[in-house]
Write a structure and sequence with these properties.
Blueprint: E1 3-8, H1 12-24, E2 31-38, H2 51-62, E3 66-73, H3 76-86, E4 91-95, H4 101-107, H5 110-117, E5 122-125
Parallel strand pairs: 1-2, 1-4, 2-3, 4-5
Helix pairs in contact: 1-2, 3-5
Domain UspA: 4-124
Family: Belongs to the universal stress protein A family.
Pfam families: Usp (PF00582)
């Protein structure tokens, strides 16, 4: 069994790509933890209130995959890496987005930071055929 950390933001299109990536893999009975990291959360929201997380949870459960929801607060890349390490995950699934080199330099890239700072396999969900990134 593979324990996969699927880190979602609030974008439902990227979350859908991540689900499709997981479902296309040949893991034997994977267990997926859906993680949403709040960078700011003054209202005390929960991962259960994040529409993209609920979408992923529903689609994976329909496919018979064991799903757990989790939430963290702070820097997304740091929290993803720390959560994966602390919970002994086997892989991390992210959905990249197209950014210019200047955009990456100015704003950083969660995907890039995770890839460079973990020793775990990182699955990057590609864009859908109909999607223009």
């Amino acid at each position: 069994m593979a324990d996969i950390l699927l880190a979602v933001d609030t974008d439902e299109t990227r979350a859908t790509r991540q689900v499709e990536t997981i479902l296309d893999l040949s893991f034997d009975s994977p267990a997926v933890t859906i993680l949403h990291t709040f960078t700011e959360n003054p209202s005390g929201a929960s991962v259960n209130q994040v529409k993209s997380a609920r979408l992923v949870e529903s689609r994976l459960e329909e496919a018979g995959i064991d799903v757990t929801l989790a939430e963290q607060s702070g820097d997304p890349a740091e929290q993803i890496i720390a959560f994966a390490r602390e919970n002994e995950m086997d892989a991390i699934c992210l959905a990249g987005r197209k950014r210019s080199p200047a955009g990456k330099a100015l704003f950083g890239s969660v995907t890039q930071e995770v890839i460079l700072n973990t020793d775990l396999p990182v699955l990057i969900a590609g864009k859908n055929q109909s999607e223009q990134l």
